[in-house]
Amino acid sequence: MLKIAWSEKFAHSLPEGHRFPMIKYDLLPEQLLYEGTITEENLFAPEPLPERFILDTHAANYWQRLRRLELSASEIRRTGFPLSEDLVNREVVIMNGTVQAALFALENGVGMNIAGGTHHAFTDRGEGFCLLNDIAIAANYLLNYTEIRKVLVVDLDVHQGNGTAQIFEQEPRVFTFSMHCGHNYPFHKENSDLDLPLAEGTDDKTYLRLLQEVLPRLLDEQQPDYVFFQSGVDVLATDKLGKLGMTVNGCKERDRTVLELCRKNKLPVAVSMGGGYSRQIAHIVEAHANTFRLAQQLFF
């Protein structure tokens, strides 16, 4: 059965003025339930992640200051959110959503988090609406506490996964692949194991050709036994922060490429949603919903 992490905290813990387009965290499960793609049984509400698993990835000093709401004004500005206890609690729940989804994927082939994809969080700081890095935390959890020995991160958000790249820059068991708009945030890029920067306005045909050339080769070369997929829909031409030229159907085919390759190669895959900032919330929800529809169709 497809298992999907979802909690009311994903949207309702955000401060006023920051809830659009974050209302997607409520609208997406509503849409999937309404159309019959999932039932209530597919959804699970994660508990907060225990601190020891956060400290496997993030610096103790940073985590303690974050938990006590002691970040400096400049550190808070960098995250993009006013710092609050509710916000930190939200982040800790999201972290466990991805950890638990990753564990479900070991059993079922795929596990999903309606939130997550917080790839701008570094070992010792947050950036870009990200306080803690769920993909890094979940990858370290698998490497430390399960039999998983090699992880591939496939980050297809429109923005480079700079925090994930920094966290794993000295970790040979994790290969980070980021395919993103080159001239976009973050303007100072970290070094992923493989970065594929794209020109502004890159269309479906060009994007899919590149992905279909690169990803099968990476799987052959790296021989991972687990994949984390950051499936941000800010690659859409309608996205306010994206700068690429993809359609909703092109984004769907991107997801199909990743998920079909994982299924074909018998690689469990944990999916985090990542960004999406189109002016019309319907575009965001439809593009994200396609990811869940495909997972249900391909794996179950």
UniProtKB/TrEMBL annotation:
One Gene Ontology biological process: epigenetic regulation of gene expression
UniProt KW keywords: Hydrolase
Histone deacetylase domain sequence ranges: 22-289
Pfam families in the record: Hist_deacetyl
Family note: Belongs to the histone deacetylase family.
Protein name: Acetoin utilization deacetylase AcuC
CDD domains recorded: HDAC_classIV
Molecular functions (GO terms): histone deacetylase activity; hydrolase activity
InterPro entries per the UniProt record, alphabetical: HDAC_classIV, HDACs, His_deacetylse_dom, His_deacetylse_dom_sf, Ureohydrolase_dom_sf
